[in-house]
Amino acid sequence: MDSGLTSCCGVSRDFEGNWCFGFSRDLGLCFVLEAELCGVYEGLATTWSLGYIRIVVEMNCRDAYDMVLYGNISVDIMARLALIGTLAYHRYLNPSSIVRDTLDADKETSVTN
């Protein structure tokens, strides 16, 4: 399993694919799988704190998906991540200009009518 300096990030969009918020967090030194799970956690925590309750989570890491779906191993990893301490967390209420074009292109290809 690969480890190194990692971060997690995510984008939340509404049912039409419009930007709701984005986030990023510097995680320091940890495993890639831990970073993937931290991204899921941060996305859910932020989404719930903003009052959203019906959520669809998409991720591109099969191992993280399996852990969330089938086991409590992910809980153990989250507990270890909490020990990392207070690392930089950023919430983006509006997409940056760098992200906007990519977000629009992704919206066109991923939202089905």
Structure notes:
- The chain is α+β, with helices and mostly antiparallel strands.
- It has one domain (3-97).
- Helix content is 45%, strand content 25%.
- The protein is built from 4 helices and 3 strands, in the order ββαααβα.
- It has a 3-stranded antiparallel β-sheet with strand order 1-2-3, with helices on one face.
- Strand 1 (3-13) and strand 2 form a beta hairpin.
- The protein is globular.
- 19% of the residues are buried.
- The mean pLDDT is 76.
How many strands, which pairing sense, and closed or not: the largest β-sheet? 3 strands, antiparallel
Distance between the termini: 39 Å
Number of strands: 3
Order of helices and strands: EEHHHEH
Characterize the overall form: globular
User: What is the count of DSSP helices, taking H or I runs of 4+ residues?
Assistant: 4
Unreliable residue stretches: none
Beta-strand portion reads 15-25%
Question: Any idea what the radius of gyration is?
Answer: 15 Å
Strand order of the largest sheet: 1-2-3
Please estimate the helix content.
40-55%
Give the helix/strand class: alpha+beta
Total number of distinct structural domains: 1
